[in-house]
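User: Hello, can you help with two protein structures?

Assistant: Certainly.
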Amino acid sequence: MVVGGTVALECVDWSWVGDSVGILDRVHGAGDELSVGERVAFYRRRRGLSQAVLAGLMGKSEDWVSKVERGDRQVNRIEVLVELARQLRVTLNDLMGEPVLFEDDEDNDDVPAIRDALMSPERLSRTLFGGAMQPEYVDPEPVARVAEEAWHQYQNGSVGHVVCVLPGLLKSAQQLERTSSGHPSYYRRAHAVSARVHHLAATTLSKVGESDLSWIAAERAMQAADRSEDPLVLASVSRAGTHALLAVGRFDDALSLGETAARWLTPQVREAEPEALSLYGMLFLRTAVAAARRQDRQTTRELLGQADTAAR
């Protein structure tokens, strides 16, 4: 369902929206009307974000956020309000103080399940937990097909569907890594598929505002990509890393990672590999976003020019 330009996750229990409104009423006084700026400040603090971090996520200055929260600056553009709501993880109606237009009574929020899959203690040490596991052969191809279908759903805007399938996909990817100690070709393929799954997790988690989990997934994707020994896989998941870094306002690091990955791809690009050229252009687009977020116009134009050259 789309509400006010934002995608409502199909699996998420939105009952907390009403709770949040109630909390605001009690804090401010039941008879008072909160301004948009006051709501921005409340939800920002609830998410544990500083004004500087929210400003970075919005591509604005810290002074802009401060003025919005104080009421010295009005936000009149709907696309800016939609982006504020997305970064604060509330609905547009909540941010505007309007009645909630939809309800979902089903308890289907799978983000906690994604968190459990990513933060399982077994992932911390194969030495400590390896003896308790009974690895079984897992065919990477069915996992790869499900992952690609989930990517297709993500690109079509069905983020809720992806959130629902990610816990199982992550567990399958982890099983692939545990059982990949056999033939070298299987080892590399298993880690390539795991990298793809964790890349999807990082991108999706960033989309729904779970920036810390997104970084964990991106790190796992990069580690798996390293073990795949495939430069295209590594370059591809580097986009997950830049995405996660952008989500937490680390624009310089995002720019550095994207440019490093592009340089890494240069030999494949020179050999005119179509997949390498496609990834090369995507990396320049991603780094252009990072440069724009840090308000570096010249670098942004240069990176967009390189992406345009790759596209041509």
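That covers the first. Now for the second protein you mentioned:
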Amino acid sequence: MRYRLFGRTGLRVSELFLGTMGLDDEAEARRVINAYADAGGNVLDTASAYGDGESLLGAVVERRDRFVIATKYTLSHDAADPNASGNHRKNLRSSLERSLRRLRTDHIDVFWVHLWDRHTPVEETMRALDDAVRAGKVLYVGISDAPAWVVARANTLAEWRDWTPFAGLQVPYSLLNRDIERELLPVAEALGLTVAAWAPLASGVLAGGSSSRVDHAALTERERAAARAVHEVANDLGARPAQVALAWIRAKSSAVIPLCGMSSVDQVAENVEGLGLTLPDEAIERLEGAVEFTLGFPGDFIAECEPHPFAFGDSATRVVGRGR
């Protein structure tokens, strides 16, 4: 397994993240994590809201410093308490202390904001996260499931006020869900953020017929078309459908790293083996042709205007952009 830098930091993270939400048995969790680590994987992702997931990790992770432990806060841990959720300072502090105890560690490597909270000023969140970093309880921070403008504003504030900026963005991304290509992926690329793509197999739809999580009779025609295309490309390349689906994600942007929930050693082996798969251009076109997707406004409109003399004069088609 190869490694990438996490955002604009020096932290080395593996090219496949292990999502641990589905691990609920200590013995199996230990086998899965050991297999992942033996393959070179080093990022374990959980959240305060994933039941006893943090406690499970705290019990089974034996080589703490070998891993990049990532957890999240925001979601409620006491439905009767209005301050037991959200991105404000009080919930951040209580959630962080709870996570440290459950994970049996003195610091969190990557602390994610789990969900945008429209009631908490982003200034409060960024300052509170920076305080946690300065206290040594958190090393790096990221944000999950938030609008692009929130991500951009948060990191601009951090840069302006010398606070710790977000280094990562965690969002859903798959052949069936390409919404981040409209705003979130361009923002991440522009700001140098690592994108942790959750649900990269569309909850098992793109993993092939063996996935026990999928009710195939309930699939939409769009989902069936995507699954067929992935299966056909996999057959042509001598690969597994899940490997093709993950290879498509990795081909879209060097900023993206798949975050896969792997609940068995066999799944770890399959996904790690697939990291060596590179899709030919015609395979990518075939996959994308099976599922309609448009950027919509303003992406499509800007793409039409960019080379047009009416918008940028007679030299519009002769300007070479950065990195080209």
